[in-house]
Amino acid sequence: MKLHTIAFTDFRNLCDGVHELCGGVNILYGDNAQGKTNFLEAAYVCATGRSQRGASDREMIRFDRKEAHVSVETNDRTRIDVHLCRDGKKRAAVNHTHVRRLGELFGNLLTVAFSPEDLKLIKSGPAERRRFMDIELCQLNRVYYYELQQYYRALRQRNNLLKDIRRYAAAADTLPVWDRQLVEYGTKISRRRSVFLEMLNPIASDIHARITSGRETLYVGYDPHTPADLLEERLAQNHKKDIAQGGTSAGVHRDDLIFSINGLDCRIYGSQGQQRTASLSAKLAEVRLIRRHKGHDPILLLDDVLSELDKNRQRFLLESMEHIQIIMTCTGAEDIFGKTPEGSKIMRVTDGRVE
Questions:
Q1: How many domains is the chain built from?
Q2: What 3-state DSSP class applies to 308?
Q3: Quick check: is 338 in a domain?
Q4: How many CB atoms lie within 10 A of CB 292?
Q5: Mind listing the pLDDT tens digit for each residue in 177-225?
Q6: Whether 47 contacts 81, CB under 8 Å
Q7: Which CATH number fits the domain that encloses residue 219?
Q8: Could you please report the per-residue DSSP string of 271-303?
Q9: Tens digit of each residue's pLDDT (9 = 90 or more) over 105-116
Q10: Is 174 within the bounds of a domain?
Q11: Which of 4, 27, 33, 324 has the largest CB neighbor count within 10 A?
Q12: 1 and 74 Cβ atoms separated by less than 8 Å
């Protein structure tokens, strides 16, 4: 699957219009704060219904407008439309058919977004590593999105109840109800995450070995905060502690990933270069995993990543993505001339105008 066109109306600072893309490398260049990343964000919104930068819907609407519209059409004639509204009532459609639940967007347009922040995946906190897992799993299996949604809904309800119990002790009688909800969905999430890492690890390890010419062995593993078979017991044991803290101390919302190189924890002992290489390997493994399980390549969104990589890693990244559609940003055309294949489409972005 490849993007044929992308269009936006009142989206961030981008001028309204329709833009055709080539099936290979599409390059957006220009000064900072001109709208290059917004172009990538528009594509990502159509794939997932949300911003890869964690922005709210309100932030993606031009400041003097009530709503924004983004749409894409693929080479197989799939059309996706997303309307963002200031009142929070997001609407989406696939092939002009209204999507009742946002999770139905996942899988229609597969993307892997890669920014300089992703190179800090290992140095970042557990929340960023969980997000890395969750976005990929949602694209691979739409059911996971609903399980995750139900889990966090139950978590919010339980946390609110824990705060109420400190004022109304009788409210504690309903705590087991939310424990059961967390166990039901948390167990499913934990199992899916475990299988996902079992699939991802050998791919990331192979990529990492190629980048480092076999000098390093990467391991990426699942680090559950609470084993699935112990979650029910742990939640019950922690009732007093959770009431005192006003929050849930056990569950998949505290899970993490393990990154190790040659048997040593990369977060603690890895150099900055090793951590970046491990992060790059994990992101590129996403692409291979999607190809293996969906039968076609995702669209790769590269937001000023080349400037963060040395020449060896730049070359490896572009060569390994040879047959994949790429939409990438950079600050200057000189950053990419001579590094991308013939037939690449180059667009300059100036104050929201894409030319």
A1: 1
A2: helix
A3: no
A4: 11
A5: 999 999 999 999 999 999 999 999 999 999 999 999 999 999 999 999 9
A6: no
A7: 1.20.1050.90
A8: -HHHHHHHHHHHHHHHHHHHHHHHSSPPEEEEE
A9: 998 999 999 988
A10: yes
A11: 27
A12: yes
CB environment 61-93: b (16+ within 10 A), e (fewer) = bbeeeebbbbbbbbeeeebbbbbbeeeeebebe
Q: Is residue 86 part of a domain?
A: no
What CA–CA distance (Å, rounded) separates 166 from 49? 37
CB atoms within 10 A of CB 189: 26
Tell whether 68 is covered by a domain: no
**The domain containing residue 150 runs over which residues?**
119-295
Closest CA to 137 of 204, 199, 193, 202: 193
Residue 164, φ and ψ in degrees, nearest 5: -65, -35
Task: Record the tokens describing residue 40, joined without a space.
Answer: 């990538």
Any idea how long the chain is? 355
Tokens of 345: 């489409």
Residues contacting residue 195 through CB under 8 Å, at least 6 positions apart: none
Q: pTM of the entire structure?
A: 0.91
Report which residue type is found at 125.
Answer: G
What is the phi-psi region of residue 263: left when phi exceeds 0, alpha when psi lies from -120 to 50, beta otherwise? Answer: left
Element (H, E) at 222: strand 218-223
Residue 150 CA, chain-centre distance (Å), reads 19
